[in-house]
Amino acid sequence: MSAALHYGATNGTDFSLTVLKARIALLATAIGGPDYTSEIEPPPYKLGDDCLACLKDLKRWFKLVDDQQKRWDVAMAVAEYRILTDDLLPILIDWENRCSLAAKLAKNNPEQGEFRNKAYYDKIAMNCLQLLVLMTWPLIITEQSSSNQITLYSELKKHQLIYKKAILSMENGKVLRAAIRLALGVIKIDRLSRTPRDNMVLKLVLNFFRNVIAIEPGEFTINTKRSMPSKGISSIDTLPPNVSMDDISLNTVISSFHKNKVFGLLLTLANSLSKEYDQDFINIPLLEIMFFLTKDVNQSLLFPQQPGRKPHHGPANANGKISTSNVVTSAGFELSKLLQKEHQMKKNVIKHTSARHSRFGGLLSIQTPDKNRLTVSGSQALVDENIALQKLDDSKKWNKRITQKRESVATEGLPNSLLNSQTGKAIFFTESNGKHFKKFINDFIDSGFNILLHSVTNCFTTEQDRMVTLEQVEYLLFFAWFINYQLLRCKMDSSSKLHQVSEALKEVSFILVSSLLRNAYDLKNWIVTHAGMIAFNELLNLVAYTKAGEGDSDDIEFIVSRLFSDERIQLLSNLPKIGSKHSLQFMKSCIELTHSVLKVLEQYSDDKTLVVEGKSRRRKKLNVSEDDISRLIEEENVDRDEALDILTSNFRGIEVNFQKVQSNYMTEPVVETYINFLQRFRELEDDSIKKVFSFFHRVFVQAKEQSLLFRFDLIILLREMLSSDGLNRMSRSRKYVSQFSDYFLTRLKKRLKKSPAWFVGLLFPPLHNSEVGFYQKYGEYSVLNNESLYASSISQFKPIPDEEALPPSVLQDMRYGILVSTLLDDGKAELLDQLLQHITHTLNVFKSWLSVNVNAGRETMNPPNEFFVLTGTLNNDPLFRDKDYRALLSLIGYSVPDKINEPCFLAGTIEIPDLTTSCELIKKYLSTPFETPNGLPSSSYLVRVRSRKENLLHGEQDGWEGNDHYDYTDPHIIPDDQEISEGDEAYFKDLDNNVSEKLKGVKLSRGIARSKKKEKKRGKKRAYRNNLATFDNEDGQQPHSLKERHSVFSKEFISDSEDDEDLMNPIFFENETYMRWLLDKNNGQLTEDRYAQFAKFAAERMANGGVTTGDYTNLFGGFVPSISDIGAAETSSFAPDKSLISLASHVASEMSAADADNNTELSDDDINSELKDNLGSPQLSDSYNDLQSDEDNRKVLRKRKLEDSEVDKEGEDEDEDEDEEAFLFSVKKSKVILDESDGDDE
């Protein structure tokens, strides 16, 4: 006893596990067992006295240990004591036999009803089914799994395979009939009379069927960081003893389901889903059952072989031809593939083996120019020089970096076989099972597909944010598989119609598919992206087939226009760019999707036009009158909400330019994906190879981007494909390779003759320099038409809050300061010096002209225009390319050129005083730093719009042309200030913005805005978007670049520059007033020391709310004057405008009012600052007004504090009420859960 206690003290975990197993053993014994007292052989099963209580205890153990503690100890103990095979299955089969016998007797003798204690046995059967669901539930390993789960994963997987074999084989799967009988008991009840518990029974039965289908052998890979050693491990090692793949294959599942009428139950539930049943309980389980039944099935195997078409996959017969008619088992199929591989290996050995007279060896020695020798052994090198060179290449050591394929399957705990139907490892059936399965699929499509898809789509649309990865994949592959099947069915059987899958063409369905694809791509969830590409490709195939067939052309045109928004076209063109970093099947899906997209859009390239919804310029306020709404309701016969959606839509129709869309695919990453895919040509089907060369033809001939394909790896690949070891000479795809190869090499020879530089260019990637790249691509210099080449658009000023209250002189002063400071920050002082020289020269010319003409009596004549040309080391590029410099020229009054052949000049009509003011302001900000109100660089007040040249050459995605006139200063327009046309500008802007963060030791990723407030602890939560209100919202407003994607993840990362308190700080205007006063006092000149003192003075006032603590008597020549003293003194013609002083007080009062509205309590510093601003206002002229204002301020503050205290007290009361309500709600919720879980105890 003492030894046991010592063992338990030192090994607490092992001791608790031992106790747990002992409890499970006692329950297994008490449930029941074989009745050996009976004379029947084999002995029948006899229930224990406390069978029902033991089953309930087992359920509680599962919930207490496995569910709550993330352990699988109970499941492992139950498996070791064989409770499922020795107890649960015999109990359910015995119950099914009793019920079946009672039903037969009731038919013959209606007076004889149910068997004895039927209610008790029904409860036992229900508890057995619940335990079956728990024990067969799919096991998922993720990076959040506990070490206990990872340790027990492989063993539990093997036990589940034993469960699956026992369920399907014990008395021909009669357990499935027992589950159906439990479901029929609920179906007999009228829908209105069913309770939630009855609906849960239906869901339980469907989950049982789903679990049986989903059980598969364990995965070698546990997750991305932990993987089981796969070397030397075959699929047999994942199987338990006495269980083969045939015992648990889909063929066996279909056979058992057909015998026990499971397919009939599934069709009944799917057909009457929205009428007879509560679809919220059973629609998702039905979707999962259909998904697991079809995910490994290749649709083409369910249809007769097409005449003249050679199937790609299948076993080889004696003649070497491929056939599937003799395949009976999966083991036979594997054997046939091994025999075919052996046959190919024998052919290669015979081909490369030398004759018996030359088997004595050979040695080939090659001397290099540097007197070294390379030696190759083997007589084969004497026959073929290519073999010798290949052996030399194989002997070289190349430490190539191994890149892991970007697949998130293991991370999400999903099986690697999730996309098996797209590979060659498809499932084969016996002839009878194939017919049964095909009949079930046809009946499901005819009666239940549209109903189930509609129900599931509506469910996922409203709860898209809560969809887990497995649910997204299940929906997308279910969607794609049945569309593909119906297309094949329609091609084979003319009586089949596409309206049987018409729900797939409904707007809600393809909006959800598109949204899942977009979100998965943005979040880099690659398995969902892969499934989304498959679904979208099948959707395009369905649209194309419908358009070519009996479909209504108007409806199809509408669907196509909704499928291809401008943002979605951009997404589809980005997908093949990342394909080369993923698996072979991912690249195949990218290529098939690209082929379908270009094929559909090419139909609109000649005579037809496709109008899609493109993003228009967003407006803050749309003036929609009631008359417009009423008129639209009457004309279009729509309701009020739909009319408002139409009138306030942010989108407009634009025409799709196919050449522009095709050019989006003509990039190096896309070509890289195609070449990487083609390098696996031995594993590809003929159709896939044909699609690759179809795209190469587009690149080479239609788009004339030949330089993209002039690469050595493609030349070597074509040579390898056409060699004797490459494609089979009888292959249908060989002719495509041969034809393209001939044309490709012919064009390459001509290019090498015309441009010998390509002998070197073939060795390296293409150059992206504009001039060199153009010459490399086309072999000629870039000649652009100067008449049609537009200059860059000028920078625009961001709208400043309350700028209407600012005087024009102050606003003009700020704009000059912004532009001059921005140019100085960018190191463009030389441009400003030349501009200042030209303005000074122009002023002298204009004044001389004016004096001469006044004396001559011709004062009404204007002087000639003064043309501006940059001299010295500068050319005229800044006049056409520098957006900020052009904005400054426009602000001064220059005629800024729109095209590069137009001149830049100052018109003679400009007023000399205005030009003089501009000259003085430029001089001022060349010598005095400009302080921005928001504390950010001056460029933060500018919007760099897209350049006109870029608009002209590449076009706008939203349909806006670059040479359109567009007013960016319109207050109703929200400019796209995140759009920067030059990549270098964005790079250096990031370098500049990161300096302050680097000085603080803060590391920040590119594209993430930094907060100017106190540092906050940033969370890792990511706000997923659900934009399904309208079709384009979910795609149309997604950012492209990494920088924009970062900026929308969290409001916490968005800059706080929109706060009025920072933008309109009154201290800034007061400092400006002090600077004007000092310049006026010192005749416009300040020494460098005084400039430094004033900078310190201004920074101290900004930091302390207008209060200074230092000594500045040397700066001001005495005491520091107050704002009111400066306002009263008007001794200079250049004195500051009084509107600045009144504006400071106005802004301070506005801030105080805003604080009062927000019920915020002011600090002592805020109170002092507010009193000082009000006392310093020039509008309070005498001491009485000063005292009265002081008293009023005290009353207002006292009243505000009282209101704040009352609001705080009310807030506390509300918080207490909410806490109490939340507590009561949680109690009620837990009670409901207990009632549902233990309802069977009654």
UniProtKB/TrEMBL annotation:
Skewed-composition ranges (Acidic residues): 1205-1222
Positions of region (Disordered): 1152-1222
Localisation per UniProt entry: Nucleus
Timeless N-terminal domain residues: 44-366
Record bears the keyword Glycosyltransferase: no
Single GO term (MF): DNA binding
Gene Ontology cellular component annotations, sorted alphabetically: replication fork protection complex
PANTHER family the record matches: PROTEIN TIMELESS HOMOLOG, TIMEOUT/TIMELESS-2
Organism: Saccharomyces uvarum
Keywords in alphabetical order: Cell cycle, DNA damage, DNA repair, DNA replication inhibitor, Meiosis, Nucleus
Biased composition (Polar residues): 1176-1187
Any Gene Ontology biological process: DNA repair
Keyword NAD: no
UniProt family annotation: Belongs to the timeless family.
Protein name per UniProt: Topoisomerase 1-associated factor 1
TM stretches of this protein: none
